[in-house]
């Protein structure tokens, strides 16, 4: 497995642990709809939280959260709509980003950005 894939998997695991410690209930990980994927779907305080996890080995060129493009947002929103329909959910949906970067010692640093984007940002 390529190093970036390993970092991505590790980042998703760290993000899920982080959310659970903060009181989020993880509903599903790696939810797929057509060609779209949502890294984590969680629930907290009667709200569905759709989480995109972005990891980079360095922030030299771009911050991880800056890699969430309009196209990616559109894909996430489409998959989230399908999830809500498929599982008959009618709660409010929030879209978060969790950015994961290693520090100089190799420890993973998490930045949680609640309400990182809105569904209409996909248009």
Automatic annotation (TrEMBL):
Which GO terms of the molecular function aspect are on file? Answer: nucleic acid binding
Q: Which domain of life is it from?
A: Bacteria
The UniProt similarity line reads:
Belongs to the UPF0102 family.
Protein name in UniProt:
UPF0102 protein LO744_01130
